[in-house]
């Protein structure tokens, strides 16, 4: 398939569905499965108010169980589809397809998934995109396999040729490759005009080596939403202040500063003394709505107000995510959008 005018669409462009993978006892969620299932149910309920969701399930029993749990919560099951295939874990942002859209079809980019640099077993997850494609899940699509470690959470596009990423993450994945070469490869594969590199920004409890989707996100109209920290006593303060200064210094392609939307800082969430990576930047944009992680924190509503301003015309829906950050990710991390027409 030869496609014309291929481009990497922004997340806020029209979608056909959100791709998820249901947590089960064979994943790392086993110890707290009941808690995380409640988050998934709330997430699917929110998505299906606006569009379809496609749920990966490990086997027929997992599908039957997931279907029953969702149906019992009065979810519109006509908007829920299932596909059976093996997976190691449920972080679909990093294991799902990165999709380029063109005239008359799509190109799915299947980068290597290495378990965030070999931290975790990833053999099944590395095959997920190929298996989805082979099963005929996607319409009018071709697959390009790329022997290069890259996770979807590490990159952010404005849909107009600018890519945002963090040097910390890409350097960890490819320590022997110069930045100029990484820049060239990313622009080539993702069809971008430029890469904006952030030197600063991290979250305690994050094992992705500073994925940009926990830190800073493009928004429509030359805007950037980012996680701020206003507590000078917090160990994140200096690093996130330095990141904020970097973002303020960025310029649009026509030389203007971006419109900036700093997100409030939630109170520390600890689990057995371990600080968890609670970030409001890890939100998901879908058709007509923004689904944001909530942490049962006084800052939740303030974060919702910021997102409403940054994404005007979209309903802001809070999804409880304290269960997710136990495994070091949040709402965006478990979700991958599929552009309109792909399924």
TrEMBL record:
Annotated Gene3D superfamilies: L-arginine/glycine Amidinotransferase, Chain A
Name of this chain's protein: Agmatine deiminase family protein
Keywords: Hydrolase
Keyword Hydrolase: yes
Any one Pfam family match given in the protein's UniProt record, by short name: PAD_porph
PANTHER family linked to this entry: AGMATINE DEIMINASE-RELATED
InterPro entries membership: Peptidyl-Arg-deiminase_porph (IPR007466)
GO molecular function terms listed in the Swiss-Prot or TrEMBL record: agmatine deiminase activity; protein-arginine deiminase activity
GO biological-process terms attached to the record: putrescine biosynthetic process
